[in-house]
Specification:
By secondary structure, the chain is mainly alpha-helical. Helices cover 52% and strands 5% of the residues. The protein has twelve helices and six strands. The structure holds heme C. Heme C binds next to α4, α5 and α6.
Length: 268
Amino acid sequence: MRWTEPGAEYALLSKQPSACLAGEGPHVRSGRALFGAPTLLGGQAAKAGLSCASCHINGRGNPHFLLFGVSAAPGTADVTNSFFSAARGNGRFDPVAIPDLAMPGKVSRDAKAGALEPFIRNLIVEEFGGEEPTPAMLGALAAYVRAIGQCSPDTLMGRGVGDQLRAIDDGMTSAVLMFERGDHAGVLLSIAAMRHQLGLIAERYPGNRRELLSASRALQALGDGNRGLPALQRWKHGFDRGLAQKLRRGEGRSLYDAAQLRNALARE
Ligand code: HEC
C-alpha cells in the first residue's frame, strides 16, 4: 500500500493483470522469481520492499503505482530518481508511464541483439543502486522479460495464495539453476525471493505469522550456512506438505478473500 494510489488499494490488492509466457522453462521461471525479489534492487527500493514486479506486475504495468517523490501521476515513475540511487540520480524529476513489458518497447527483445541484458544490468546497478548481478541472474531476467506476452483475452485476474506459492516454486527452480551454475550469489538471491513471498503471505494471514516467520528463518539459515541443495530441497518438500497445504485450506479466512480484504481496508 506504500506505493499505491489512495482509493485504489482494493483494486490493486484483489486483481492483477494476466500475462501469458512464451514458455515456462527453468530460465524463465528463475527470472520471474528474481524479478519479484526486492534485494535484487539495492538501497531504498529494497528497504521499501519494492521489486521489479511492484512496477511491472506480472511483467505488465501498474496503473495504480504512486510513490511520493518518484511518481507524478498514478502509473508513472522516475527511475533515474535520487530516491532510488543517491549517487546516480540525475537531479531532474522526470517520471514517465511505467511500460507494459508485453509490448514492444524501446529496448530490443531480440536475443541475438542482446540489448536487454546490459539494459537490465544498468537498471539494477545504476538506477537502483543494487549489487552487480551475475551473468546467470541477468540471463534469467532477460529470458523472463523476453517471454512476457499478452493473454487473449487480456483480462484482469483475481489474486490468491496460489500466486505466492507458485512464486516460491519459481524461487526453488531458480535456486536449483543457480546451484548448477555454481552461482552462490544467485542461490542467495533465489532464497531471498522465496522469503519475500513468505512475507507477502504473512501480510494476508495474520493468524499464521509465527509459522511463516519461522519458515522464513529456516530458509535464511540454509542460505547463510551454505548448506547445499539437498537441505534446501528437504525444506521445500516439508513446506509443500505442511504449511503450504494449511495456507491453501485457510485462504477463505485470509486477506486473499475479497470480503475479508474489504473489511480490513475499511478498518485502516
Ligand atoms: C519504480 C518503478 C519501476 C521499477 C521498480 C522497475 N521499473 Fe522497469 N521501467 C519503469 C519505467 C517508468 C520505465 C520506462 C523508462 C523510460 O522509458 O525511460 C521502465 C522500463 C523498463 C524496460 C524497458 C521497456 C521498453 O520500453 O523496452 C524494461 C525491460 C524494464 N523496465 C524492466 C525492469 C526490470 C527487469 C526491473 C527490475 C530490475 C524494473 N524494470 C524495475 C519502472 C520501473
